[in-house]
Amino acid sequence: MAKSRFKSPWILHFNCGSCNGCDIEILACLTPRFDVERFGMLHMGNPKHADILLVTGPANRRNARVLRNLYEQTPDPKVVVAVGTCACTGGMFHNCPNVLGGVDKVIPVDVYVPGCAARPEAIIDGVVLALKKLAEKKVEPVKAVGGR
Ligand code: SF4
């Protein structure tokens, strides 16, 4: 189970309010030029199927609850990758009235990929680093009902 997660991670991408620049670079990773699917990485639409949460854009008051919900619905073990300067620190949206800052103001972040926009090579590098962190995280054993 752990080996299949490491060899074929499933990824959920959430745009937390970015300008779409970093999202276009994430999509570029799926094109034949970068072709991350050859590593078994699949883009998922459901957090319950994901191992890695890729987040672009800054956290703000409006999307914080959605971001937290997605994080909580993603099963353990999971890793979060903040893609782009906005997701890392708030970036160009820093000091906007409704912006809280980087994604780590709302959920724990494991890997930061800076850049405006983050380059596809850097995103792939960040995901590979995230895989190493995923392998280090242990799955909690499910406790038997009745305490046996
Ligand atoms: S880091 Fe740059 S490209 Fe990415 S969401 Fe922010 S402003 Fe857009």
Provide an overview of this structure:
The protein is α/β, with parallel strands linked by helices. The chain has a single domain (2-136), classed as Rossmann fold (3-Layer(aba) Sandwich), CATH 3.40.50.12280. The protein contains five helices and seven strands. Strand 1, helix 2 (21-30) and strand 2 form a beta-alpha-beta unit. The mean pLDDT is 88. Bound molecules: iron/sulfur cluster. The site of iron/sulfur cluster has 13 residues, from helix 2 and helix 4. Iron/sulfur cluster binds next to helix 2 and helix 4.
**Number of helical stretches of at least 4 residues:** 5
Morphology: globular
Mean pLDDT: 88
Heteromolecules bound: iron/sulfur cluster
The total domain count is 1
Q: Any low-confidence stretches, pLDDT <50, length ≥5? A: none
Please give the CATH architecture: 3-Layer(aba) Sandwich
Layout of strands and helices, then pairs:
Elements: H1 2-7, E1 10-15, H2 21-30, E2 42-44, E3 52-56, E4 59-60, H3 64-73, E5 79-83, H4 85-89, E6 99-101, E7 111-113, H5 120-136
Parallel strand pairs: 1-2, 1-3, 3-5, 5-7
Antiparallel strand pairs: 4-6
Helix pairs in contact: 2-5
The structure holds iron/sulfur cluster (SF4).
The site of iron/sulfur cluster has 13 residues, from helix 2 and helix 4.
